[in-house]
Amino acid sequence: MSGFILGSKQKQSQTFNDKGERIPVTFIDVDSCYLVDIKTFEKDGYFSVKLGFGQIKNIKKPIKGQLEKAGIKTPLRFLKEIRLDKYKDIYKVIEENNKLGISVGEAKFFIGDQIKPELLFKKGDILQVSGISKGKGFAGVVKRHHFKGGPRTHGKSHNEKAPGSIGMTTTPGRVFKGKRMAGRMGGERVTVKGLELIDIKDNQLVIKGLIPGAKNGLVEIVS
After folding, report:
1. For residue range 84-132, what is the model confidence (pLDDT) as tens digits?
2. Which stretches within the chain are classed as H helix?
3. Where are the beta strands (DSSP E) in the chain?
4. What are phi and psi of 192, to 5 degrees?
5. What's the pLDDT at 98?
6. 10: closest CA among 209, 221, 206?
7. 178 backbone φψ class: left, alpha, beta (φ>0; ψ -120 to 50)
8. What is the band of 55 on the pLDDT scale with cuts at 50, 70, 90?
9. Mean pLDDT of the chain
10. Considering only CA atoms, which of 68, 88, 69, 67 is closest in space to residue 79?
11. What pLDDT does residue 188 have?
12. Which domains are assigned to the chain?
């Protein structure tokens, strides 16, 4: 892991790689991502960075206080912590001019600074992207869990997507916890690994493949 940033999912398109093969790509807007706070082992018992992203007109007072403490005038929409416990040998906590920051390689970031993607990422990096998947509402077992469904002939005209038996009449005589059944689909945190960074341009990351979430949804990117 060498880089971290927050962004918002933009359009999905396609391009051609160096071999002339057509590949799907997703554009991620990473403009206006700021370092809001740093959690250290000495003070907080763990090591992480708190990032802020996106602009919004009105923010709550607790969030406004955090931004003012960091010296950020932009009202940020999202705040997110990324744990760095496992990477304490890569990221170093530094302090210059009474400002707390971190260093990774030759790059330095201090609380209140805007994070530039070109300082933490490079073309060809393998990324891990996390986001909230699109909500699909209430769905049956065929759509939600890819059940085969019931028979479509021989008099079975009304239970093509029925789940079938879900329990038993003998001991224990109940439906087991975790049984795959109909219910709300989507709206969950999804992480996709092994995505290649195709390009960085105009504060946007061009990533090979598709990522979870709706357009303008928050995504967390680490490499």
Report:
1. 888 777 888 888 888 888 888 778 888 888 888 888 888 888 999 999 9
2. 41-44, 61-70, 117-120, 141-145
3. 4-16, 22-29, 33-39, 48-55, 76-83, 92-96, 99-104, 107-110, 126-132, 137-139, 183-185, 189-201, 204-208, 218-222
4. -115, 125
5. 81
6. 206
7. left
8. confident
9. 88
10. 67
11. 92
12. 4-57+65-135+193-222 (2.40.30.10), 141-165+172-185 (no CATH)
Distance CA 106, CA 159 (A): 63
Q: Which amino acid is at 152?
A: R
DSSP for residue 186 = -
CA distance 29 to 192: 18
CA atoms within 13 A on the CB side of 79: 18
Residue given tokens 């997507």 in the structure block: 161
**The token pair that represents 42 in the structure block:** 């000495």
Tell me the CA end-to-end span of the chain in Å, nearest whole number. Answer: 5
The DSSP bridge partners found for residue 50 are 37, 81
Distance between CA atoms of residues 217 and 88, nearest Å = 29
CA separation for the pair 131, 154 (Å, rounded): 44
Distance CA 158, CA 152 (A): 9
**Contact status, residue 28 vs residue 8, Cβ threshold 8 Å:** yes
CA 51 to chain centre: 13
* pLDDT score for 17: 85
For the segment 130-141, what is each residue's pLDDT rounded down to a tens digit? Answer: 999 999 999 999
Q: Is 112 left (phi over 0), alpha (psi -120 to 50) or beta?
A: left
